[in-house]
């Protein structure tokens, strides 16, 4: 690209000088246009935009890149020659020069068009490329710092919505500038007077472009979700939230250990159709067997069918689901006010301080607690939540580097892959189990994260599809880890919870399934002494995992409710069962003064009030 750019600059310089045209402006315009057009062509023909050798030069091993660079340069030179020819013939003449007010209005026009374009292209990319995304999820992720974000997603954002917006702005503002400063005619004409009303026209067009972009963006996301999030109130918290700190929980004399494993994007839907899934072949045979034969799974399906929990707003991405499953309350940014969102700080002083979580309950009972993950715990506030709500020892990507377990410059997938995670889990679990106190060992897998999952040389190709292969391989890894635990002395007194964090966001994977099929998040409770419960035809969500996990540890819960959650081992109906799935989902989308005041107390709520009073 660079060599052809230099060649383009030389040719355009010679051409412009020869025809007495403005050289600096012309060369700059052609250079920027060439770069944008080349990147746009590369993206549309699936060429790597970050290919450094191709950006500097086009060697033999990048013939497609070189060809597209030549095409882009040819287009720009052709436009230049066409402009000069028409100008020399008198068909195009300069008719106006901007004054300072018109330049200011033109710059605002560019900013408005760019903002509107980026809003639309970002929303379109999010909803169509990622899939399974709700508005509350977008707001929460936007409120977080970039540190720890998947670099692939950042690159995709730059290559798709950002580049599309820049390219559209380049074309549109070039057209506006050209037709505002030039006159086209079939005969030679004298220079016209300056156009006095350009500034207000620019502002009007810019405002129209901004409003149009935002409107299209909201349409992509869904008017109902946006309306509910900002303008509708729910009374579910006022009427049904039970503060866990006020409940007199009764632990057994001999406290049970807990191993809680969040399985990234793990759906019951990955099973075959004969047992409730949607696949022709069972991608998760081991997890299916654990749920149907060995442990206790709660399912929305009939008896003998794999099923699971329903996904709800505020529990539809990893961090929010982890919080919801352990606090009994969905996680959302307060009213979507990003600039005052305390959760967006690198180290939040108070993260969801109004909830009383599973970690705090177990901390009070002298449990040793540890959180293990192969990614960066600080992403999306996970470190802050688990440190502030249970004083967990955090072992993440940085911990592995500091311990010398991985090289200083090692970075695979979200940090390090699950092969290493399960090895470190065995060591960490053995370490915490050797202490005399009971323990809560929590971990999070990552290989099955979208897009297509993380594949290694050892991942068998059984299905001809990368994501299917990764899901099946993860199923095997989890099973082997459980079998290892069964051989350990601590297992007899340990309850294991395996649960997905949310439905997969890999849009292509379920593109052709029956739209009436109800996808669900996987769950199973292993090694409990529970015998009486209703486990099929249940409607429940992440918030119900909190009291159910404590019940699996033989903890007595007066009323069988904590937060918005209901103990699934009891005969009490969940809020979703009482209200219906769609109604409960809708209520969780809405804002709540009770939520902001009592659960966000001291964090986003106070920050927002302070901003309002300034």
TrEMBL record:
Q: Which domain of life is it from?
A: Bacteria
What GO cellular component entries does it have? plasma membrane
Q: Which Gene3D superfamilies match?
A: Alkaline Phosphatase, subunit A (3.40.720.10)
Domain Sulfatase N-terminal, chain residue ranges per copy: 256-506
For this protein, the record's CDD domains field holds: LTA_synthase
Q: Which residues cross the membrane?
A: 27-45, 66-86, 101-120, 157-179, 199-218
Q: Which residues form a coiled coil?
A: none
Q: Which PANTHER family match?
A: LIPOTEICHOIC ACID SYNTHASE (PTHR47371), PHOSPHOGLYCEROL TRANSFERASE I (PTHR47371:SF3)
Which protein, by its recorded name, is this?
Answer: Glycerophosphotransferase
Q: Which organism is it from?
A: Tetragenococcus koreensis
């Amino acid at each position: 690209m660079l060599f052809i750019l230099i060649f383009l600059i030389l040719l355009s310089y010679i051409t412009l000088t020869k025809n007495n045209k403005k050289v600096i402006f012309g060369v700059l315009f052609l250079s920027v246009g060439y770069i944008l057009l080349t990147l746009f062509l590369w993206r549309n023909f699936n060429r790597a935009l970050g290919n450094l050798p191709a950006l500097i030069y086009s060697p033999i091993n990048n013939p497609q890149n070189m060809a597209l660079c030549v095409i882009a340069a040819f287009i720009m030179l052709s436009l230049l020659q066409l402009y000069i020819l028409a100008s020399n013939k008198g068909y195009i003449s300069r008719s106006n020069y901007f004054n300072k007010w018109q330049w200011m209005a033109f710059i605002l026009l560019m900013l408005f068009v760019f903002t509107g374009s980026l809003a639309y292209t970002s929303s379109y990319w999010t909803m169509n490329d990622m899939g399974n995304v709700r508005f509350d999820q977008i707001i929460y992720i936007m409120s977080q710092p970039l540190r720890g974000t998947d670099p692939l997603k950042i690159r995709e954002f730059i290559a798709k919505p950002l580049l599309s917006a820049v390219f559209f702005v380049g074309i549109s503002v070039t057209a506006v500038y050209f037709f505002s400063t030039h006159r086209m005619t079939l005969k030679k004409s004298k220079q016209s007077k300056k156009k006095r009303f350009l500034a207000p026209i620019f502002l009007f067009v810019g405002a129209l472009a901004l409003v149009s972009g935002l409107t299209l963006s909201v349409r992509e996301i869904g008017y109902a979700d946006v309306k509910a999030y900002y303008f509708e109130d729910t009374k579910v918290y006022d009427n049904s939230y039970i503060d866990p700190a006020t409940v007199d929980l009764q632990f057994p004399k001999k406290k049970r250990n807990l191993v809680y494993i969040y399985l990234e994007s793990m759906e019951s839907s990955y099973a075959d159709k004969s047992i409730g899934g949607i696949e022709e072949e069972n991608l998760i045979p081991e997890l299916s067997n654990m749920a149907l034969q060995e442990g206790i799974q709660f399912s929305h399906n009939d008896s003998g069918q794999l099923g699971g929990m329903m996904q709800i707003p505020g529990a539809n991405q990893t961090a929010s689901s982890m919080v919801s499953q352990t606090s009994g309350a969905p996680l959302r940014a307060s009213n979507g006010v990003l600039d005052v969102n305390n959760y967006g700080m690198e180290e939040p002083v108070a993260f969801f301080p109004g909830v009383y979580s599973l970690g705090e309950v177990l901390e009070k009972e002298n449990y040793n607690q540890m959180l293990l993950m192969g990614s960066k715990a600080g992403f999306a506030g996970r470190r802050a939540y688990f440190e502030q709500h249970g004083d967990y020892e955090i072992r993440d990507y940085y911990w592995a580097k500091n311990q010398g377990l991985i090289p200083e410059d090692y970075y695979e997938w979200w940090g390090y892959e699950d092969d290493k995670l399960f090895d470190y889990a065995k060591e960490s679990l053995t370490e915490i189990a050797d202490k005399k106190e009971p323990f809560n060992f929590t971990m999070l897998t990552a290989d099955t994260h979208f897009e297509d999952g993380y594949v290694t040389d050892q991942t068998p190709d059984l299905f001809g599809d990368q994501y299917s292969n990764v899901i099946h391989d993860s199923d095997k890894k989890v099973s082997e880890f459980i079998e290892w635990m069964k051989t350990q002395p601590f297992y007899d007194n340990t309850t294991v919870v395996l649960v997905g964090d949310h439905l997969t966001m890999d849009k292509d994977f379920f593109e052709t399934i029956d739209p009436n099929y109800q996808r669900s998040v996987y769950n199973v409770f292993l090694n409990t002494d529970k015998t009486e419960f209703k486990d099929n035809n249940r409607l429940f969500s992440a918030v119900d995992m909190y009291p159910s996990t404590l019940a699996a540890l033989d903890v007595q819960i007066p009323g069988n409710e904590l937060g918005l959650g209901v103990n699934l081992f009891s005969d009490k109906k969940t809020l979703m069962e009482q209200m219906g799935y769609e109604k409960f989902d809708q209520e969780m989308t809405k804002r709540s003064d009770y939520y902001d005041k009592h659960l966000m107390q001291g964090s986003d709520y106070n920050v927002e009030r302070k901003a309002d009073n300034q």
